[in-house]
Amino acid sequence: MKFLTQISAALALLGSSAMAHPVFDELMEPTAPLKRAQAALSRVNDFGANSSGAKMYIYVPSKLAAKPPVIVAIHYCTGTAQAYYSGSPYAQLADQKGFIVIYPESPYSGTCWDVSSKASLTHLGGGNSNSIANMVNYTLNKYNGDASKVFVTGSSSGGMMTNVMAATYPEMFSAAIVYSGTAAGCFYSQSGGTNQWNNSCANGQARGTPQVWAKMVFDMYPNYDGPRPKMQIYHGSADSTLNQNNYNETIKQWCGVFGYDYTKPDTTQANTPQSRYTTYTWGDHLVGVYAQGVGHTVPIRGSDDMKYFGL
Ligand SMILES: *[C@@H]1O[C@H](CO)[C@@H](O)[C@H](O)[C@H]1NC(C)=O
Ligand SMILES: *[C@@H]1O[C@H](CO)[C@@H](O)[C@H](O)[C@H]1NC(C)=O
Ligand SMILES: *[C@@H]1O[C@H](CO)[C@@H](O)[C@H](O)[C@H]1NC(C)=O
Ligand SMILES: *[C@@H]1O[C@H](CO)[C@@H](O)[C@H](O)[C@H]1NC(C)=O
């Protein structure tokens, strides 16, 4: 696949320190070959305040819905907007369904997202998360978007950022899908560093109670008591980049936020949505999918994502 060649080339360029970061089995289901997207990916320069320097790319399909929904699709470490655009199914799905896709691009070398600084882990804190929220507002205003249908998803570092977006801008998103990420705040840097790698989280040693993890979310937007996005969390049991314990810690976090009992899912469905995946649900706001034998990252499930987003 052309996409995998690009990843290998990027990894080769980045050298050995980046090699400790995500390496992909596959980004998408191999059974779903992509048609070419019909419109083009374009760069947007003036989307509002951008003190963190993140870049904005956008995919606007040629047949746009009257009040288009918006999906924010966030790339992995070593990734770019272009790579996630060509390696994920969202642009082709936008051609079918008329929504807009925003592909933010990290400004850092190594191009992981900043999910470690106080700025990014705070509502209106001026970090990467704030830049992405500004991209969403720009898009809603410019294209008369449907503010009640704004969604966020991402893989790996983009999955971590998806949890962070859900925690810092809960008023903005109605649903979020995390592929192989970590809990919001799990990559927090004690020294306040921006875009820091956090070994204890990556290695699955950062453990907390649902209350501790939930407090991190509440502290990212103090006094917020409005609606929050529903969350779907995918993780593979054989993830050697972001240890599989991060699945449970993320589930505990959102159970703590929504008041669900983490030890008692409402339903447990074996071999769902496919063989060796188990799907757990809590109330109407949390779904966990634990993929037995799957490494980093769990392949994106485009048509299931559309169902979860109600598109
Ligand atoms: C955001 O930062 C990037 C990188 O510095 C820059 O290229 C871009 O023009 C900035 N956009 C805005 C809206 O400030
Ligand atoms: C986005 O726009 C809404 C509505 O105008 C506003 O309330 C909100 O504060 C904006 N969010 C950001 C991150 O600027
Ligand atoms: C890594 O994150 C955890 C929280 O998940 C935090 O307790 C720890 O101090 C962080 N490590 C560093 C080096 O900042
Ligand atoms: C997650 O928690 C469940 C329930 O406590 C436990 O059975 C399972 O082994 C845990 N999984 C991981 C990967 O730690």
From TrEMBL:
It comes from the Eukaryota. One of its GO terms (molecular function) is carboxylic ester hydrolase activity. GO terms for biological process: xylan catabolic process. Its main location: secreted. Residues 1-20 form the signal peptide. It is found in: Secreted. Keywords: Carbohydrate metabolism, Glycoprotein, Hydrolase, Polysaccharide degradation, Secreted, Serine esterase, Signal. Its EC number is 3.1.1.-. One of its GO terms (cellular component) is extracellular region. InterPro entries: AB_hydrolase_fold (IPR029058), Esterase_phb (IPR010126), Plant_Biomass_Hydrol_Est (IPR050955). It holds the Pfam family Esterase_PHB. It is an enzyme of class 3 (hydrolase). NCBIfam families: esterase_phb. PANTHER family: FERULOYL ESTERASE B, UNNAMED PRODUCT-RELATED. Belongs to the carbohydrate esterase 1 (CE1) family. This is Carboxylic ester hydrolase.
